[in-house]
Model the fold of this input.
Amino acid sequence: MVFDFFRDRAKEGVAQLDNLSKKASQGKLGEGLLDAATYTQQTNAAIVDGLAKSRNQLLYDLEGMYSGTGGDVLQQLEDTLLRSDLGTQTTNDILQEVRNLRKDSTAFVSQQDLKSILRGKLLEALDTQQSSAITFADASATDDPLKQLTVLFVMGANGMGKTTTIGKLAHRLQTEGQQKVLLAACDTYRAAAVPQLQSWAERANVDCYAANSETQNGPSAVLYGAIDEALAQKYDTLIVDTSGRLSNNQALNAELLKMKRVIQKRLQANTTDDDNDDDSVRIPHEVLLVLDAAQGRMALDSAKTWHKDIGPLTGLVLTKLDGTAKGGSVVAISRELGVPVKLIGVGEGIEDLRDFNPESFVDGLLGIGSGGANGSKGDKNEGKVLAGRLEQMRKEREVAVQKTAAAAAGDGTSTQSTSTDPNNNDMMDMDDDGINLITNNNNNNLSNSSRKKKKTNKKKKKKGKR
Done:
């Protein structure tokens, strides 16, 4: 699998595509395809390994629901999903889908059917309708050097793994994209920030620009110098490291806004974030927020503030997935912000920054296919089988609703009680035990029965008087 954000730059010499082309020209296409397949397997394996703690906890809780210990299974499912940090919205969607797709109101879905529902709803929750690929400048604009430089603006609080992420990202750009990369050390507030970034630059074999005079004593001044350096030396990509901060630090947030304006002014951007929806001319090309997955939903509040005050954010980077059981927070944060996750950190090594692929992530979280529980390799087609099963259950549900509506229409029953809206509480509602089906039709039948009893009682009284 080629690094996602190089898909549009294949002609510039992406390592995997270049290797495949070379093998084909030598009459070794099979060998080239094998190399590409190995790369894909390694990437997926890294994601599966990184989600081990999250997956083991989730699968253990789900297995417990079917152990026969009794209790309200729907309530247990809700508790399990919330403990996994999937978020309230996604949890409610899953519960509603389970209610809608059950065979009847007193039954619960099978383990396999529940896995089908979980997989489908999690994939839907991660679909932000935005590209998960990193946006780059137009490399073909050879007549204008200002349009050739890509600027990636990276934000995040201290301790989230921001500087480490920048180093790993620079390494991938340099090795996989054959890019000339410059890091801008604009975190001038933390004493060890610049040496740390310089150390990562050496490991990634890229260059780092830091303050080189007493006049460059602020983040914006350093950034201006870094842009000049990048343009003069014809770098492909400039990655900007910013000061770590909490989202409620208004002074530092104002500095971030100033830095964005410096980039726009220096690169002669004629558009603003508010009136520009074209990724090809957006400046900076990416505004990435680095979040620690171990914080779970605690990171969401900060992300919302940055998205509103500094943003719009264009992508999220989730780090430390390998050290937490809260991998579900990826779903909650991406869904509630409406911002795609573009990269995930699954280890401490320089190679452990991976493209975020929703399908691989969900399968790894649920132990599907190559992400089998306890490291076992399941059926590689399991994901497709589960997707097919979910589609089948939804079709069966549609047929059942249509039959109910047709039968009610033939009996002259009120159309309100046969609404085809699966979210209509009159059509399906749960009592405290989570097992009863309640409809207006049932209520009407009870009322009719009550009226019949009253009539019978009146007749008995009249007979008694006679």
Summary: Residues 145-356 form a domain with the Rossmann fold fold (CATH 3.40.50.300). Confidence is low (pLDDT under 50) at residues 5-15, 27-38, 270-280, 415-454. The two ends are 93 Å apart (CA to CA). The longest helix spans residues 382-411.
